[in-house]
Design goal:
The complex is a heterodimer of chains A (about 160) and B (about 290). By secondary structure, chain A is α+β, with helices and mostly antiparallel strands. Helices cover about 35% and strands about 30% of the residues of chain A. In chain A, helix 1 runs antiparallel to helix 2, helix 2 runs antiparallel to helix 4 and helix 3 crosses helix 4. The longest helix of chain A has 21 residues. By secondary structure, chain B is α/β, with parallel strands linked by helices.
Chain lengths: ~160, ~290
Amino acid sequence: MSGDDGYRPRVPQTQLVVDQTFDGRSLYRVRATVAAHAAACGLSPRRSGDLVLAVHELAANAVQHGGGGGRLRIIKQRGELLCEVTDEGQGGPAAIAGAASHLAVAWRIERGHGLWLVRQLAEQTSVRTGPAGSAVTVSMGLDPASPLPPSHLFMVGGG
Amino acid sequence: MTVSAQTQITELRTDDHACLTFGESEELLDLTAAFVRDGLSCGCRVVWLSELPADQAIAELAKRGVAVEPALTAGHLTATASENHLLSGQAFTAGHAMQWLGAQVADCQDRSLAGLRVVMDMSWALRPITGVEQLPDFEVGMASVLSGMAVCTLCQYDRERFDPVTLASAAALHTRSVAAATYYQDAVLRICRQYAPPGLRLAGEIDYHAAEPLALAIAEAIRLDCDIVVNMADLTFIDGACIRMICTAATSLAWPRRVILRCPPVIADCFVRYGAAQVPSVRLAVIDER
């Protein structure tokens, strides 16, 4: 008989909830995935929209400048939702310029525009580039009481 | 990609018996408003048999820039339901419908108006109406009886609800086929021209993949000598590349022309982050969430 024996499952501090590859034909799915998890974690529609756009810009950068595709990982850890986009390209001039142009405010700047926008949208952004490719992580703070994503939304593996 | 080869709503003239197929209510209302606007500007009487309540139909026209008040006051504009006009209660006969139409023509002639425009939403034919099999007879009758009588008729068919066979046979009974000029369409995105007010309409999700058709749509809208409306009421996502294209187009307009961005709050936020609100030729018109 089920009953309350006082057992409470340990909630992991860090949870990988999505790990999927993408290319230029699957950006719609990337956006839908991020939107679903952002909503499940309790982000408001506006902040969800910001996160979706930020991740899209990173993924589009990976497609256009990072070898044609990349990998999206969504990680929930206490107090924040992280989205990491990695690619195996060289991270061309556009991406590198974007990393350095985060102080530029004029929207007319073409190069690295995606990363400029990402920095406006995400609460925190970190960029790593190198010969093996680049990895950009954006994060949004969560309400401490936000629920875990439902188990059916967990997706681990190639896409 | 190419713009649709079908007749543009703004090209319809007297004696046209046109068939309009639509997929979304925004598309239907936009094309109807353009048809009504152009008819009123030519001094015609316009009758709209709509599925909407009359006051809502009039409000939709006004929202799209049609000067409804003077037209209503002068008796040049009527928006009403098909029931008790085209239909006799819940029954349709070609004879009754032609009689009703003939009365509208006679009224225009008595008042020495320039002509008559009648726009009919045929969605009533999807309801359990007796006699609906006579609809083709009515369509054929309209084309022959109204020829040379300064009448332009526009029959509207919802392509999402009518089956392809009915749509094809209906189109064949008309002299013109009308749809919104479409620059791009797939399961995720639609880019088409908007006519009332002039501009373009984006629905779904748009990103850099659609840059080319978006550029074409913007270029054609810019050629119009007026403000341009970018209707994003049904848009749920736009990326930085497309925001940039629209803002760049706005900065290319000579004063006092403007680009009016009609969009939901989430989309408006994106443009604000890009600095669009600081561009003098951009006006953000944030709409209520539905």
